[in-house]
Amino acid sequence: ALATGNTALVPAEKAALLNTLPESVKPHIVSDASTNYAAVLFEGDSDALKTQNGILAERDGPIVPVYGVTRDDLASGISDYPLDLLVEEQSISINTAAAGGNASLMTIG
Question: C or N terminus of the chain, fewer CB within 10 Å?
Answer without folding.
Answer: C
